[in-house]
Amino acid sequence: MRAMIFEGVGQPLHAVRMQMPEPGPGQLLLRVEACGICRTDLHLIDGEVKIARPPRVLGHQIVGTVIAGDDEGERRVGVPWLGWTCGECAYCRSERENLCPRARFTGCDIDGGMAEYALADARYCFVLPERYPSEQAAPLLCAGLIGYRALRMCGDARRLGLYGFGAAGHILAQVARSEGREVFAFTRSGDVAAQAFARELGAVWAGSSEAAPPMQLDAAIVFAPDGALVPTALRALAPGGTVVCGGIYMSDIPAFPYSLLWQERTVRSVANLTRRDGIEMLELAPTVPVVTKVSTYPLEQAGTALEDLRAGRFTGAGVIVP
After folding, report:
1. Domain range holding 179?
2. What pTM, to 2 d.p., does this model score?
3. Same domain, 197 and 254
4. Which residue of 30, 33, 48, 215 is 20 to 30 Å from 209, comparing CA positions?
5. DSSP string spanning 205-242?
């Protein structure tokens, strides 16, 4: 089968021919229909998130058709970042498997979806809404799920700031608007395309992350991996507000005065996802309905797709179609 593999930090993805994988107990063999790309893929390539045993096939927003390892016949499923947990630890036994210390992650510890075929733990395969074509469904599996978990950590916040308006931001804005929240979108300075896109999706305000919003926010989610945005977001919060850090990696958060945290403001992180998050979000998406905007790339152009993501050359999400 064809695949794109990571061989080392700073090296470009490499096209190879690999042997077709065979499913073991509890595994499904999938014919990959689409695989979303994610800023986490860039963190892996850059060594900010470690791959312990390369070479590795990247890609953790997999939509595929089950072709072996299942008695139910061919069906379409989605595979997220969280790919395996022990099922035995205190976290797994309390519906917090996202914190399992032995967890394994798709496209990092387990070969992912930048290939024609992939293996997946059947426990972490989600039924996908029928209304979405595969390339439209792929971004829901990380951008959508992590955004959903981050939003739930904001409670009933009415004025919501989104710092970084890429794949996760454009999905979450639609969910937040459906719940009657006001969305304030913060982008890279001068990114008028992303700001216009945010307004199209119902944001009441869109501007540079360096700018102050026209009114205080009840909560903010920081998707961009820039730690300097945390004190920036705190400055925009009303008393009692929350800043949620929605990425797996972020540069160091600079020191800031206690006055920014005073009045019961909080800062917290989101780690991975639970299966409950996946089930709830994938049931919710078609009722909004969430519409994902995607730019598609053939498998052999996965490296180009990631560099386009890094440079902000598209709005919405990027998706690899083998």
Report:
1. 154-269
2. 0.96
3. yes
4. 48
5. EEEETTSPPSS-EEEEEE-SS-TTHHHHHHHHEEEEEE
